[in-house]
Amino acid sequence: MYVFFSHSSVPCITTHWKANNVYVRTFAGVKAVRKKRYFQNLYKFEKEGNKYLIEVALDDYDDVYDDWDPTPFKKRDIEDEFNDYIFNSSEDIPLNYEIGIVLYLPDEKKDEKKEAALISAYQNFYNYAVLRLCKVTSALHRRIVSNLVLSGSFLSFGYFWGGTAGSILLGVMHEGIIIGGWVFLWEFFTNFFMRRRELHEEYKLYDRLFKAEIRFVYH
């Protein structure tokens, strides 16, 4: 069992996730809070490190791991719901701030070896996510170049090839080439101006999570 905390000073806003992996986030009357600043009411802030804290209460270290992954703790995957909460919380916090992950556990569970194993598993998980995004971004850049080349080739060929009056088939082929050129051009603009930006934002989020400080607090 694990519980995810928020520290809202606004009574109408609550954020939590607990038992049996049910995640609940309620924003009743959220219009009363500025969209750009509501995160300030949800997460603790440390001025010294310009850092917001994402807090999680655990019953045991195992709560963070994927139950279906049989590999050793240091290499085990992180639980999907845990990752979703951490990632979504990180999205709430602007990228000009650092973040820290605070894990609360019972005193009797304290184990330095398990702490080190959890930190290693956490960093491996998010390092893999960062590397995967790098590969996806590289593939996107190749596709952008390919779309631009194909678009230019199709539109140029269609523009300079004008002898289609004597044949319906050639006319259809000509129109198909022109349409294909515009489709590749649209793909180029979509990938260059939209998809590339989305991947860059996602990369920065995962990179910040990878570099986040992990603290253990026992109670």
UniProtKB/TrEMBL annotation:
What does the UniProt keyword field contain? Membrane, Transmembrane, Transmembrane helix
- Segments crossing the lipid bilayer: 144-162, 168-189
| Protein's recorded name | Uncharacterized protein
